[in-house]
Amino acid sequence: MRVANSLAMFQMAIRGVMMHKLRSLLTVLGLVFGVASVIVMLAVAEGASQQAQRQIAALGINNVIVRSVKPTASDQEINYRSFVQSYGLTYDDLRRIQETLTSVVDVTPLREFPQEVRYGAETISARLVGVYPSYFATNKLRIARGRFLEQADLDNRSNVCVVGEDIATKIFRGSSPLGKSILIGGQHFFRIVGVLGYKTPSAGVGSSLSAQDLNLDVVIPLTTDRSRIGDVIEKREQGSFSRQRLELSQITVEVVDRFQVKSTAAALEGLIAKFHTNKDYALTVPLDLLEQAQATQRIFNFVLGATAAISLLVGGIGIMNIMLATVSERTREIGIRRALGAKQSDIILQFLIETASLSLFGTAMGVIIGLATPSIVGYFAGMETLITPWSVVIAASVSLAVGIIFGIYPARQAARLDPIEALRRG
Predict the structure, then answer these.
(1) Residue 385 is assigned to a structural domain of this protein
(2) Residues 230 and 373 in one domain
(3) Same-domain status, 307 and 395
């Protein structure tokens, strides 16, 4: 009997909602757009955060990166007999790190500077990078054709190189570059032994790491770089001439585990600072950057969620307003039901079912729109979006809760009507 009464009450509530379809639809629009905006805004924020965190993670969570930085004019060390400006990391620094820090499992030096690459009549501006063979594993690079540099190349100071995807495509225009020689800097020929797989260019990360496009790299053995190119780089630009001594551009230190990264970074900072009083280096800890990015993302999610939740609150107020108007319109109906024996709890339940139905419909529509919109935004805006399950659950839960809570007051107002007064007013 009780089940039959509940079913009849539910059917009556649904009829009450469907009696004014347009008004019901307009009533739930606040919840629809509120739920959708929460999902979309958090999806955009999460996508941007994941992209930034992937760039940081690509640097290696267990790594500490030390990079040469050109000092200010007042701090420059210049040999006025040879007019050579010296700065940055040195091979002595590399040796000290290898011999001093016990928590280090691998040390990868790197030296880079721009150079012009020529093959026949084709030329392109590239970045010449001298490395150890461990450079490829440290930076999680993959080979598309040929092979990586090997220890034998380093030991023999071989004139071999591995080129980026863009160099292989733009200079050789579809033909295989393997085994062919390119002219670098107008002085030295290097035979291509491998082509790197395409890697998305990265934005600047940290205080010392600028944006990089590894697809325009020509990677050679570090020993070859030192013996062929030398430590002194000469630059001639628009009548000016400069000579700079830069032994190493960067040293990447891989630590045995992430729990020792920060202590190793502190020890490394102290070791380098002893021999570089003019502060011609900068230290980057990807683990610190990742933790900062995650903390910033949590704050960003809270702010975006709170902002979008305001529309849910507005939607709840809209439901309350319409339900109060519905109580006024259905005063006679309420009086008749009370006169026939309906309890206050029955009236409250009826109006709460109507409110819950509106909230459920608005929430469902909002979730559908919210799940469909991020991919559209990502397609037209060219940005990454990522929908997280928790954002959908929170948005839907808050929407349902807001709709039902704001329906309690109108339901109680309806239940408190005096039957005789309700019949008289109706």
Answers:
(1) yes
(2) no
(3) yes
Of the residues 279, 314, 333, which one is the last residue of a structural domain? 279
- What DSSP character marks residue 109? E
In the three-class reduction of DSSP (H, G, I as helix; E, B as strand; rest coil), residue 289 is classed as helix
Residues 245-258 have pLDDT tens digits of 888 999 999 888 87
As given in the structure block, the two tokens for residue 98 are 């290898």
Instruction: Please check whether residue 229 is in contact with residue 188, taking contact to mean a CB–CB distance below 8 angstroms.
Output: yes
Cross-strand partners of 342: none
Whether residues 340 and 249 fall in one domain = no
Contacts of 46 (CB under 8 A, 6+ apart): 297, 301, 385, 386, 387, 388, 391
Residues 309 and 272 in one domain: no
Most distant CA pair in the chain, distance: 110
Cα 284 from Cα 270, distance rounded (Å): 14
Are 257 and 180 members of one domain?
Answer: yes
Residue 128: which of 185, 178, 71 has the closest Cα? 185
Q: Which residues pair with 129 in a beta bridge?
A: 112, 219
Residue 74: domain span: 70-279
Residue 254 lies in a domain: yes
pLDDT tens digits for range 33-80: 888 888 888 888 888 777 777 776 666 778 889 999 887 655 555 544
Count: domains in the chain: 2
Distance between first and last Cα of the chain = 30
**Using CA atoms, how far apart are residues 338 and 353, in angstroms rounded to an integer?**
18
Distance CA 42, CA 210 (A): 28
Instruction: Name the more confident of 180 and 315.
Output: 180
Does any domain span residue 267?
A: yes
Q: Which 3 state secondary structure label does DSSP give 325?
A: helix
On whether both 170 and 312 belong to a single domain, the answer is: no
In this model, does residue 373 exceed pLDDT 70?
yes
Give domain status of residue 28, yes or no.
yes
Q: Closest Cα to residue 135, out of 220, 53, 206, 19? A: 220
Closest-CA residue to 17 (of 282, 383, 330, 300): 330
| Residue listed under structure tokens 């053995």 | 221
The answer to whether the CB of 192 falls within 8 A of the CB of 179 is yes
Token code pair at residue 65: 């990166």
Among 279, 308, 331, the domain boundary falls at 279
